Amino acid sequence: MKFQLSFYLFLIISCYTYAQETFTVSGTISDFANGKSVFGASVFLENTSAGGITNTYGFYSLTAPKGNYTLVVSYLGYVTIKKEIVLDKNQSISFELQEDTTTLDEVVITAEETEKANIRDPQMSVAVIKSATIKQIPAVLGEVDVVKSIQLLPGVTNNGEGSNGFNVRGGATDQNLVLLDEAIIFNESHLFGFFSVFNADVVKDMKLYKGNIPANYGGRVSSVLDIRQKDGNSKNFNLTGGIGLISSRLAAEGPILKNKGSFIVAGRSSYAHLFLKLADQDNTAFFYDFNVKGNYEINQNNRLYLSGYFGRDILNFDDAFKNAYGNSTLNLRWNHVFNDKLFSNLSFIYGDYDYGLELNFVGLDWTSSIKNFNVKYDFKYYLNNKTTIDFGASAITYNFNPGEVRPVDEDSSINEDILDKKRALEGGLYVNAEHKFSEKLNVQLGLRFSMFKRLGGQPIATYLNNQPVVYNEALGIYEEGIMTGEIDYDKGETIADFSNFEPRLGLAYQLNETASVKLGFSRIAQYLSLLSNTANATPLDVWTPSGPFVNPQMANQYSVGYFKELQNGMFSVETEAYYKTVDNRIDYIDGSDLIANNNIETQILEGESRAYGLELLLRKNKGKFTGWLAYTISKSEQKTPGGKAGGPGINKGEWYYTPYDRTHDVSLTGSYKLTEKWSFSGNFIFQTGRPVTYPVGQYEYEGLSVANYGSRNADRLPSYNRLDLAATFKPNYKPNARWKGEWVFSIYNVYNRKNAASISFGQNLETGVNEATRTAIFGIVPSVTYNFKF
Amino acid sequence: MKSYIYSFLFILTLFTSCTDVIDVDVPTADPRLVIEASLDWQNGTDGKQQTIKLSTTTPYFDTTSDNAVTGGTVTVTRSSTNDTILFTDNNDGTYTTKNFEAVLNETYILNIVYNNETYTATETLRPTTPITSVNQSKNNGFFSDVLEVNVYFNDPEDETNFYILKFQERDEDYPYLRDLSDDLQNGNEISVVYEKFDDDNEDEEFQPGDVVDINLYNVSERYYKYMQLLNSQSGSGNPFAPTPVELRGNCINETNPENYPYGFFRVTETYKETYTFVDEE
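ok -> structure tokens follow
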């Protein structure tokens, strides 16, 4: 292993063999107004090929032969800085960028911060959305939503309102790595997916990798959603907030410790009672979030960051049941600049997702949780102006508590039952090199070595013929295997061990100044899966680690794209085609029972999935009207043969649609700035309906009509479509006023389409006739929100 | 027990969503034979009268087809004695006998010949736990201030048990069926609550004077799973319900396995209680 890695490093370094006297200029770029570091600003030496963009901490480093240069710092929406420098020694220069008030008309969604970088960057299949853009998109009940906004991008869908998570390129929701300041978020939804856990007031930006995932990420096969919280304003104290129909938000930020640091603290809470329409009953359903982030500059080369998130959902129905769940994360980071070429970041991250359900009417109290502790050490080495190398290591320990059942009181008939707790260790080592082979060819080459150990401390069942699931030939069904015993593993023992090499490749070839083609490949292993046999993932679903019966999912994704700028950046076109395969994708046998099941292996079969598609994104970047049109045509299927369980497998072993297949997915988003006081925005979405299973017949049994269902996912819900509109009004608009307020009026689902979240089939017990019942979550929803900044 | 957990999610969505009945085109598969062979021996009776129903599947929204199967040959054999009883074809899809011999722990074999194909199934008559008491209350159930009936029985500790409860309100056309396993309640006194609730119409709730017949059946694990799946798929607009699947019973087509039948052959003892709601003090 070691030998391979060093050999690999050697290969990269040997790409550049010539030597010349060179010097390095490095530093950080921050925002003049609030001192926040700027990620993605372009820094380059004019008329040379030396250039790059600042990293997430605002750091840049450029190396060039000795000489006189013009250093240019540019960032969309900010005044470009040009500075003459004499490069005769290594030096550190930091800049503060000032907002360009003349270009505020621009929508700030870009695939990379400058269009130029977009064309040249070998990274493909990535989208950045900034907080300002998210806030422009009309949202249901006026709740600005991070996760909903990414669904307007090509290749990203979800199961409609009231469903958790999102689906990327035909992947499942558990195949997305969702990070908030590097901490893993296991459930990104409030109130079963009506809202996401990310408070838009504290989100700085987010990056979604749909493919070609860089080597510093691993562990999920479909995508990475990397969300960064804002740094607090290090110059002035200010408050931002909003009052909406569902929730209110307040964030405070400002300098601390004699301007050596800054903080931001934010809270958001929904109003109890309003959400449920049952005002006269003792019911509550509400959520709250608490975000905090602070940073402190020890000196020019050392900076500390502390960030945390705590969120909770609380549901209480008439004391019949109580339900509370949420994520908590804490991250301590240390940025250290070793020298002008080597930047590092060390992170200690703790995360906890826990779930509790109390069913008083049956006397049952259920809790489950997943805790993880993660240490990461990442380095960025600016070897020269052609090559940057990222490398690092990470280790995550997981403690899974899949469920504990207890009686609520002495009268309860429930016995205590604790499912086996599971432990695992996930490690990763990576190196990623970006090298400019020529003016036209830019390559990013990465390798990740991942390992996963399922640790002892629990018994593992053994089965007759080693078959946890057996096909019953006579009855044509899959059944639980016959348990023959259990092997007890001590905490010191390893139950199962996996490791994988995961190569990543990105390549950009510039055809001319405004167009390029890109190629990408990534291989990724996923060691955790969310167990869910329902159409919509629920917070009750339990995460489970790979082990003796569940192999890690392995994905290979190939992508190719064409990128083009038109009319000097006024328009841009991005097209990508992808093909993705996932091995060891599990599916559930007919009639599977996952709730409080200690032996999940008796309910699943291992198969494979594949997805392919073509994505098109056309953007208008400048002018009074900005926006984009996204279109995706795609297919996502899976196949689950019987394997060692025998029999034909699920759906007779033939390919069937995954629940995430959408043949067509169109979204149109635009905003129009009429005056300084009034601006308007809207979006339209059309999606092919979700694959579902419809009945193919009926019969009578026990006096009831029983639906007889056909092949899995062979039918489809009606198409999903809706139009949303919003208007923003800024009364008393004065550019320099301290108090900035705005009213946002929005209408969700303007033409009141009843989009089916599900269609279920059953007998009407009054008439005896079979019926198809559509459940639609939101019809037309008007709302008003007041936002302020002080 | 576990089915509660999904239903709780469903109840949440009820309050945030709207449901309506729509027209949907659904596909239709070729018809198959449906066997409803429930040989229930009610404790305290001789259990000699039994009925088996044969029918075929029909298109899902079809309300007119006559799908009764006539002309079948239906027999049940006691495996210990090889005594075979022929059920009489009543030419309306039902087949009856007055000579069934119910013996605890006896294994019975069902044999049906229809359209020159032979269908078989095997099941053991298992003893059932008696119902210890039945009463009414208002606040034991999910909804407070709604009348409900509580059924109590003692779960045997030394074995895994599976139960089906059937509640049939007099004057109602359809029974309410509950599936239950003791996996979280082994060895305890188990109580099962049945209540009716309609947000818009209080008359739908139980009223004093309403009469409910309650049957408790101990059943095989296989049959419990069958009924659990049947109940969970009976459809109520729950977006969190598991993906519905084909429901396969325990009857086999010996002649042509691909032409498998639906339905189930069950043989159980059952305890029956009748409860009449009274005015609360």
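The two ends of chain B are 31 Å apart (CA to CA).
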